[in-house]
Task: structure prediction
Amino acid sequence: ISFSEVDYEGVHLPHDDPVVVTLQVELFTMKRMLIDSGSSVDILYKHAFDQLRISTDQLRPLKTSLVGFSGEMVHPLGSIDLSAVACTAPRQTQVQMMFLVVDTPSP
Result:
């Protein structure tokens, strides 16, 4: 994802504000995706996963755990590759993203 000068209108630089974007994942528009450049994985919360109407049978099992925002251990339900589309034509891009699905409240 890249940003132009127009995207910085009203932003006082340098800033440490969270970056939140809208992406189309599969056929669902996710309006509040937090970009965390310090994270090593892409997280999809179970609530959002359920709204995609994808069967949990499609999740690949994982034998790893994550450390949550408050330091607790989180065990993913599994991983899944989903198509994500950013922007609109002519600057549109589509990528396959691997998400870890977690059944924990989102912050």
Remarks:
- The helical segments are 46-51.
- Residues 4 and 91 are 12 Å apart (CA to CA).
